[in-house]
Amino acid sequence: QVQLQESGPGLVKPSETLSLTCSVAGGSISTYYWTWIRQSPVKGLEWVGYIFYGDNTNYNPSLEGRVTMSLDTSTKQFSLRLSSVTAADSAVYYCARGFNFFDYNYLDVWGKGTTVTVSS
Amino acid sequence: DIRMTQSPSTLSASVGDRVTITCRASQSISTWLAWYQQKPGKAPTLLIYKASTLESGVPSRFSGSGSGTDFTLTFTSLQPDDFATYYCQQYNSYPYTFGRGTKLDIK
């Protein structure tokens, strides 16, 4: 049974970079679309983007080039970096596994989520 | 971006009721739609994908239907564990988008 676990700072200062890591336990890290989603009262659930084996990425254009994802197959972890954060980036951040079918992928396993607050 | 509109936003129902919630996409998404259940303080969990395929382990009292722009999630007989918030999500085109949710609470 695959399990995902997010980790990272719960508090980030405005204009700094948010960095989160998701650890994958109990399954393969190849062949899936490793995805980040965030949830806030204002925006609801928002798809942030994914990284696929081979460093293929797809990001939400709304994040205006501030997002970077990476994948470390040796440690079975993938990461999210979001730069120049503002209070609007405060949210619960979830990592999830995208189960792929011809580039259509639904999210079949989710981490428990981690709350990130942007504040000075 | 494709806008996903769910209705109603809140629904009060009783155990044993048959209930249907709807999700409408702003443009055709074929059947590339998923439904998720979320309970307070927890992550969403996958119920249905490809509009009508039940995820493994999900009770058969849940069913999904629809294609194109209009979709439904139906509960044939509500159970106490079903009171939660339900989200639809399109995965037809990027960026993937979610509805704002339907909160199902006990009447």
Task: Explain what you see.
The complex is a heterodimer of chains A (120) and B (107). Chain A has 120 residues and is mainly beta. Helix content of chain A is 0%, strand content 59%. Chain A has strands spanning 3-7, 11-12, 18-25, 33-40, 44-52, 56-59, 67-72, 77-82, 91-101, 104-110, 114-118. In chain A, strands 2, 4, 5, 6, 9, 10 and 11 form a seven-stranded mixed sheet that branches. In chain A, strand 5 (44-52) and strand 6 form a beta hairpin. The mean pLDDT of chain A is 95. Helix content of chain B is 0%, strand content 50%. Chain B is globular.
- β content of chain B, as a range? over 45%
Q: Segments of chain A where pLDDT lies below 50 for 5+ residues? A: none
Beta-strand level of the residues of chain A, as a percent range? over 45%
Separation, N- and C-terminal Cα atoms of chain B: 35 Å
For the terminal residues of chain A, how far apart are their CA atoms? Answer: 39 Å
Count the helices of chain A. How many? 0
Quaternary organization: heterodimer
Q: How many beta strands in the DSSP annotation of chain B?
A: 11
How is the biggest beta sheet of chain B arranged? 7 strands, mixed
**Which blocks of ≥5 consecutive residues of chain B have pLDDT under 50?**
none
- Backbone structural class of chain A: mainly beta
Radius of gyration of chain A: 13 Å
How would you sum up this structure in a few lines?
The complex is a heterodimer of chains A (120) and B (107). Chain A is mainly beta and 120 residues long.
Layout of strands and helices, then pairs:
The complex is a heterodimer of chains A (120) and B (107).
Chain A (H helix, E strand, L loop, with lengths): L2 E5 L3 E2 L5 E8 L7 E8 L3 E9 L3 E4 L7 E6 L4 E6 L8 E11 L2 E7 L3 E5 L2
Parallel strand pairs in A: 2-11
Antiparallel strand pairs in A: 1-3, 3-8, 4-5, 4-9, 5-6, 7-8, 9-10, 9-11
Chain B lengths: L3 E4 L2 E4 L5 E7 L7 E6 L6 E5 L3 E2 L7 E6 L2 E6 L9 E6 L6 E2 L3 E5 L1
Parallel strand pairs in B: 2-11
Antiparallel strand pairs in B: 1-3, 3-8, 4-5, 4-9, 5-6, 7-8, 9-10, 9-11
